[in-house]
Amino acid sequence: NEYIIKDKEFVLAAVKQNSLVLEYAHEDLRKDKAFVFAAVKQNGRALYYAHEDLKKDKEIVLAAVKQTGWALRFAHEDFKKDKKFVLAAVKQNGLVLLCAHICVHKDLRKDKAFVFAAVKQNGTALQYAHEDLKKDKEIVLAAVKQSGWALEYAHEDLKKDKEVVLAAVKQTGKVLEYAHEDLKKDKEIVLAAVKQIDGWAFTEMKRKLVKEIKDRSFCSPSAIGIIMSVGMLVFSFAWTRNIDNITVLGE
């Protein structure tokens, strides 16, 4: 019904429910800046069905990105190459970085200033940086200070760097698993990691250990590995909190 697909109020209500509806809106509505602006504020993915001219409109695209970071992939290619615009989009919605491999032009992923600014917004954006920048200590430090999980994406050489690993585990103790083996034996790093591990983690590790012992022989390699992990963590936990008696296995 042509009357319905030209009805702004009706189509906007429909777009709010499902962005795909804009595909069936009258062409005049998909060219109407005020209408499309209202539509992408309701559902950023509606940008996909906007007229091509409006995909070049900065105000429209930023409104769409603010609603959902994924909307940047539907913007005109020029926006994806524009460092200032992409950073503005990141500021509007950090989720832009989650689609960086699609939304951001490859040249920007080689740009140190851009990547540095991006990882300060969201450390895990490091995964989309050029490999050379994953070796850059300044970039990686900024990333792990924002999110310890960024350590997973750092170059192997920096996983051996005590300053980098210490900064990461101070954010998230569980990322110790991504550190080089030598640093997993470093008392300062282990203690920093333990301070970030909650009680649930200990309970879960103990549960796995008990199950391993019940299911297999006590000296199986995996059981020994778990025992060593639990032993180190519980000892460190007790030491840092002045707890004298901790039962590792419980009843």
Descriptive key words:
single chain, 251 residues, mainly alpha, 3 domains, 14 helices, disordered C terminus
How is this structure best summarized?
This protein has 251 residues and is mainly α.
Describe this structure in words.
By secondary structure, the chain is mostly helical. The chain folds into 3 domains: about 1-105, no CATH class; about 105-195, no CATH class; about 195-250, no CATH class. Helix content is about 55%, strand content about 0%. It has 14 helices and no strands. The chain has helices at about 1-5, 10-15, 25-30, 35-40, 60-65, 75-80, 85-90, 100-105, 110-120, 135-145, 160-170, 185-195, 200-215, 220-240. The longest helix is centred in the C-terminal third of the chain and has 21 residues, at about 220-240. It is elongated and about 70 Å long. The N and C termini lie far apart (about 70 Å).
